[in-house]
Amino acid sequence: MSLRVGVGLWTGQGADSRQSYGEVADVAVAAEAAGFDSFWVTEHHGLPDGYLPSPLTVLAALAPVTSRITLGTGVVLAPLHHPLRLAEDAAVVDLLSGGRLVLGLGLGYAEHEYRAFGVDPRTRGARLEALVGALRTAWTGASFSCPVLGLDDVRVTPTPSRRIPIWLGGYAAAAVARAGRIADGHLVGRGEPGIVEAASAQLGAPRAGFTRAVNVTCVLDAPGGGAGSARAAFAVQQQAYEAIQTGRTVYSRTVAVGADVDAYIQVKGNVDEVVAGLRGVLAGLRDWPEVHLVLRLLFPEPVAVQRERLATFGREVLPRLREGT
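Now predict its structure.
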């Protein structure tokens, strides 16, 4: 198994957007210094806490302040974006970063986002399917058309420095099957054994060059882990997610988390327990040659807490996790 370990998901959430967005470069630099292989951002729209709406814009800002770490979107809500603009923006980020972009794409699920962008959610699967092929053609620099996406004799310049990897997210059987057919990787949002194993079964036999990626929410109950801060901030994030998923207005701050926040955390405990928990996730991926864990360690917290946590994971967890892989 070839294992890479990234960190995320940076969302931009916080009471003071000027501060949280102003600190993202510090967090990415700290992640690179700690030894993580990748840094991941995500996307939502219209939330009252400043949730990141423009993931590729943030990655463009991170490109010049980092040198080694992969920059990933986990995920871009693809049907909400104009396909030509998405192809152009991804190519520019790839060039700015020296070929370090992984473009994760997903369908999204929030009705208010589709309504805001004037996109019919019934078309989202067909649009995403067509988009993957269109992006790959676009990045060759050749003129092309894609009637499904409303593109006729268009061209993208400049072209990226290499073939940008496209990973697809999603839990549903159709989403997993789509990823297996047309993408370079599949990204699972929750690193729980049942979910990971179900996706493995749906994807079938591993194929060369295909990456299995899994987000795993971690809380380290040890010095440097900032466990109390992590749990409190993560609970606030879950309020926003639950508000969207239950159809309640995202502008309400009264929605309850609905369960103890630990129910949402896949791996927790001291260093030994965290390493064991992550190895348990890897055990479900043992047949796959290319595996990418994305440790969800970044929450709406003071940047000093995040830097210390990243350094602690880099020092205490990452070396042990990589042993024997």
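The radius of gyration is 19 Å.
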